[in-house]
Amino acid sequence: MGNVIRSRRDRLRAETIAEIKATALRHLATGGVAAISLRAIARDMGMTAGALYSYYDTREDLITALVADVYQEMTDAEQAAARTVPVGDPAGKIIAVGLAYREWAVGNPAGFQLIFGEPIPGYRIPPNSAAAQARDRACALLDDLVAEAWPYVTLSAWGRDYTWSDFQPHMVATIRRTHPELPPAALALALRIWGRMHGLVMLEITGHLGSQTTNPAKLFRNEMLDLTRDIGLPPPTVPLD
């Protein structure tokens, strides 16, 4: 009987946490990060503020939980796309991951804004938290793409003169742990690839592409193809759609 009661309590707690997170993301979508308030969320859910504090001690704790979820969802979508492309097709993998990134962002604009929008005043992802681990997993995926592409990459001399001191320690630690064979220039390439993926997506999510093109998906797809050509990769072996 005790196990049944605990199981029911655990299930109800999980359902309440999911509702808290969903409500917070709705507030974020309509009012930005400043709209995330434990008291406002409690009011919308018909809870007392004290009851909600039994789930999250602070607003920052809730934001950290949301950040972890968003990074996890984004990376899961990207990894699923990468698995559809065979090993030995680095251009195809980069394009597939880029397309998955855009599709996820378009379908989850509030989550996208949470992790890539305006920084939250006074907030930093706590070290060793689930959010930090999820962020590092997203970075590691880019590192995996570069590791597969690196034997094909052709960069000018100015693109290879990086040192590890050019990057934040947590980024260096991640790539040196997962791909110790790669040089600092490979980490720079990972960031440059992400920059190319991110730029058009950010313009689209923030509403700046709508007045410029009727087909942002086509624009993005061609940008990804150009990116792989620019760094010297052979053409993808899989369809782009």
Shape: globular
Order of helices and strands: HHHHHHHHHH
The tally of structural domains comes to 2
Q: In what range is the share of β-strand residues?
A: under 5%
Helical content stands at 55-70%
**SS-derived structural category:** mainly alpha
Return the average pLDDT rounded to an integer. 90
The unreliable regions are none
Which CATH architecture of the largest domain is right? Orthogonal Bundle
Instruction: Count helical runs.
Output: 10
**Biggest sheet statistics:** none
> Termini, distance in Å?
53 Å
Radius of gyration: 20 Å
Count of beta strands: 0
The named CATH superfamily of the largest domain = Tetracycline Repressor, domain 2
The third-level CATH topology of the largest domain is Tetracycline Repressor, domain 2
> What's the level 1 CATH class of the largest domain?
Mainly Alpha
List keywords for this structure.
241 residues, mainly alpha, Tetracycline Repressor, domain 2, 10 helices
Structural commentary:
The chain has 241 residues and is mostly helical. The chain has two domains: 1-57; 58-230, Tetracycline Repressor, domain 2, CATH 1.10.357.10. The protein has ten helices and no strands. The protein has helices at 2-31, 38-45, 49-53, 59-82, 90-107, 109-116, 130-149, 169-178, 184-205, 216-230. The mean pLDDT is 90.
